[in-house]
Amino acid sequence: MSGTPPRLLAVGDSAWTVEFGHAIDDATHARVVGLADRVAAVQPHEPLLASVTDVVPTFRSLTVHFDPWAGEAAALGRQLLSMAREGQEAALQGRQWRLPVCFDEDFAPDLPRVCELKQLTRTEAIDQLLGATFRVYMLGFQPGFPYMGGLPPPLVTPRLPSPRQKVPAKSVAIALDMCSVYPWESPGGWNLMGRTPVVLFDPTQTAQPAMLAAGDEVRWTAVDRNTHDRLARDIAQGLPRETFIKERA
Length: 249
Fold this sequence. Notes:
Layout: E1 7-10, E2 15-19, H1 26-42, E3 52-57, E4 61-66, H2 73-85, E5 96-101, H3 111-118, H4 122-131, E6 134-139, E7 146-149, E8 164-167, E9 171-175, E10 178-182, E11 186-188, E12 191-195, E13 217-222, H5 225-236
Parallel strand pairs: 5-13
Antiparallel strand pairs: 1-2, 2-4, 3-4, 6-7, 6-13, 7-10, 8-11, 9-10, 9-12
């Protein structure tokens, strides 16, 4: 096993967190997702995991929720730590998404700020964003909000000095070395770089309301306003999410 040895932490009486280190990077996250995959694969035929109700990947840890009345907490913790020590990285590659983004001025109010701070032209900043492959590390802050690593160093930018009271839903945003999309209108202090027509959280999709999941990869594709608006209408009328999954060779 490579990397920092995993550490088991109790979260109240109904969850364990397995922590894989302090770094936020692909290698650490691969161990997180690897343990999540292993729990999902083993749970149907492993009595110690029968009480597990949910697993929550984060940047560098996995939290496993369980029913404390349906199993033995201490034994479950030992099992999780043993599985983590085996050092399995993600067995399955996440989905690869190609998502549209429109950079019209009213969709990208902070693009000029980023360009000024980073001494980039508008075209250079957009090309940096379009050329990057982002990895979904975790979902948080609000339902469906993806924290995505992989922002190119030339775009690493501080949050806004004062957060906005209202960030429009579907805004594509960056802050520090992360990229994300606001699924809902909300307050927020990230730099707004564009807008996507895709719906990142749909409660009618009961199997998986959040469109993205930890381990997925995202690349952005520029579209004009007309294409953005057409896609938004098509999505509202039922265009499936899978339309935006990249076909693998």
